[in-house]
Specification:
By secondary structure, this protein is of the alpha/beta class. It is built from 19 helices and 20 strands. The chain has 3 domains: 1-24 and 524-583, Immunoglobulin-like, CATH 2.60.40; 25-132 and 212-512, Alpha-Beta Barrel (TIM Barrel), CATH 3.20.20.80; 138-197, Oligo-1,6-glucosidase, domain 2, CATH 3.90.400. The protein has an 8-stranded parallel β-sheet with strand order 11-10-9-5-2-1-13-12. Strands 14-15-16-20-18 form a 5-stranded antiparallel β-sheet. The chain binds beta-D-glucopyranose. Beta-D-glucopyranose binds at residues 89, 92, 129, 200, 236-237, 259-260, 308, 369-370.
């Protein structure tokens, strides 16, 4: 089953004149595929909901909480990896692409989750991690057991070291998580052997995607999940699978860090790295996606591919979503854009131009499991715009009140934009980054590989609060939680916000309902004049949006107020606040 039953996703249905108060335009009348306008909610299984009380989220926990996501009003979920894995990189180190890790449940639990989601009209996107496997994967274990030059070794990137005795790594590449990107083997007789490449952790060896055998295996993985009814794939490190011939030396413009942007010190810096490195954005990756697209197109029901590709500029990202490649690409340029009128107007224009040039929808995103949550990030100081992951010793820690107000305003702006938006679990509760995690509880390999110099991403991965008065705030039936939850989770818990006017949860629900009713995902941005630089002011179909990114209040133009990200006194819109008005 892959066609959601409870809610139709076609544009035709969503633009009935009775809903918008005006006749549909020609653009609106074009039946749109669901993914062009979808709001996709990212579930990080370790931290969403724990059914068995062991402190680690699981698939049964997710299933139990799906009705809450239906109430929220999202169209699809993207599940971060739940596959068999030693969990050295929280599941992005996969040891079996076609099974569920026992900590998360079983394949039957996945089927139940997917069936329940589909019954609720929610599509299910799974994560595909093709750049590397876990070192525990049988394919890598077979490569280790096989001799140099064997077919098994050719599935990965093994090379001789440099120097008289091969004692130096084959090139100077650094791991994204810090340290060397090569690890040397010890032969069965104890002598030092070949080196293997791992752009991430030592336990995440890179595949050799020039090898047809690897391509054939992954076609099989795609089919496995498509046959089970998955609605698509979020493709991890979709810009990294092909490496430049000869593996030439390369020194990045910044110290290595998470490709999730956790090390971004200024907008675009990771993108510059991605643009020039011999391991990112090599032209050969596109052949792989054209091949995968043919596989997806064999299946009914508009299955999709969404690229995690940290490349720049947006016109380059758009190459991943040409008509015969993927459907969506994450808009990290938008995520990285500082809170301000001119910068936001520019990135919105650039996004719409770049993606529409290839016939793809723009996507929008503010948070995910790799970056500082936007309720904190948007209040970081200029010298630390994005944060390297933030912790107690970070300079310029955010003001939480300012951060939350900006986050609500930023989300209200994002959800009014045409295209598809991604939400990250917990942002609908206004969760901030957890800054004061005890060092001993941290698990991100970035933390270990930099000897604590970079805090990494644990702060955005703390298990969710569902019930203010329950153990583990309702994350599970016991008080266990794989990362400790802060005391403020009590007031931020879902049940403390449910039905409370003005709560962040109710703001998200209202925005998602109005977005659907007014078919904003299908619309267009018509910029409006009348305000100064800090004001982002546009019309999308039947809705006028006014986002005040500055500090000076402004008087709103005429029109019925549909939504405000903060309560207003009269028609004065304070700084860091967004309003939607009926056009
Ligand atoms: C994922 C990260 C992961 C890395 C290696 C990223 O793009 O989003 O969470 O650590 O890929 O798989």
């Amino acid at each position: 089953m892959n066609t959601p039953s409870a809610r139709e996703h076609t544009a035709v249905r969503e633009v009935e004149p009775s809903m918008t108060g005006e006749a549909p335009t020609e653009h609106d009348r074009t039946p749109a595929e669901w993914w062009r306008t979808a709001v996709i909610y990212q579930i990080y299984p370790r931290s969403f909901a724990d059914a068995n009380g062991d402190g680690m989220g699981d698939l049964a926990g997710i299933t139990g909480r799906l009705p809450a996501l239906h109430d929220l009003g999202i169209d699809a979920i993207w599940l971060s990896p739940f596959y068999t894995s030693p969990q050295h990189d929280a599941g992005y180190d996969v040891a079996d692409y076609c099974d569920v890790d026992p900590i998360f449940g079983t394949l039957a639990d996945f089927d139940t989750l997917q069936h329940t989601a589909h019954e609720l009209g929610i599509r299910v996107i799974v994560d595909l991690v093709p750049n590397h496997s876990s070192s525990a994967h049988p394919w890598f274990q077979a490569a280790l057991a096989a001799p140099e030059g064997s077919a098994e070794r050719a599935h990965y990137i093994f090379r001789e070291g440099k120097g008289q005795h091969g004692e130096f790594p084959p090139n100077n590449w650094e791991s994204v998580f810090g340290g060397n990107a090569w690890t040397r083997l010890t032969n069965p007789d104890g002598t030092p052997g070949q080196w293997y490449l791992h752009l991430f952790d030592t336990t995440q060896p890179d595949f050799d995607w020039d090898n047809p055998w690897v391509r054939a295996q992954f076609r099989g993985v795609l089919r496995f999940w498509l046959d089970r009814g998955a609605d698509g794939f979020r493709v991890d490190v979709a810009h990294g699978m092909i490496k430049a011939a000869g593996l030439p030396d390369y020194t990045p413009p910044v110290e290595g860090g998470s490709m999730g942007g956790a090390t971004v010190t200024e907008p675009g810096i990771i993108a510059e790295w991605a643009e020039t490195a011999p391991y990112w954005a090599q032209g050969g990756v596109h052949e792989i996606y054209r091949d995968w697209r043919l596989v997806l197109d064999e299946y009914p029901g508009e299955r999709i591919l969404a690229a995690e590709a940290w490349v720049d500029p947006l016109s380059h990202v758009a190459e991943w979503v040409r008509p015969d490649e993927m459907h969506q690409a994450f808009n990290f340029a938008y995520l990285e854009t500082p809170w301000g009128g001119p910068t936001l107007r520019r990135v919105i224009d650039d996004s719409l131009t770049a993606f529409s040039a290839v016939g793809a929808p723009s996507t929008w995103v503010l948070s995910n499991h790799d970056v500082v949550r936007h309720a904190s990030r948007l209040a970081l100081t200029a010298e630390n715009l994005q944060g390297h992951g933030i912790g107690p010793k970070t300079a310029g820690l955010p003001d939480t009140v300012v951060g939350l107000q900006r986050a609500r305003a930023a989300t209200a702006l994002m959800l009014a934009l045409p295209g598809s938006s991604y939400l990250y679990q917990g942002e609908e509760l206004g969760l901030p980054e957890v800054i004061d995690l005890p060092d001993a509880s941290r698990e991100d390999p970035t933390w270990f590989r930099t000897n604590g110099e970079r805090y990494g991403r644990d702060g955005c991965r703390v298990p969710l609060p569902w019930e203010s008065a329950a153990p583990s705030y309702g994350f599970g039936p016991t008080s266990a939680s794989w990362l400790p939850q802060p005391a403020e989770w009590g007031t931020l818990a879902r049940d403390a916000q449910e039905g409370v006017p003005g709560s962040t949860l109710e703001l998200y629900k209202l925005a998602l309902r109005l977005r659907r009713e007014h078919a904003l995902g299908l619309g267009a941005v018509d910029w409006l004049a009348g305000f100064g630089d800090p004001i982002v002011h546009f019309r999308n179909g039947g809705v006028v949006v006014v986002a005040n990114t500055g500090t000076e209040p402004i008087e709103l133009p005429a029109g019925e107020l549909l939504l405000t990200s903060e309560p207003l006194a009269g028609r004065t819109l304070p700084g860091d606040t967004t309003a939607w008005l009926r056009a």
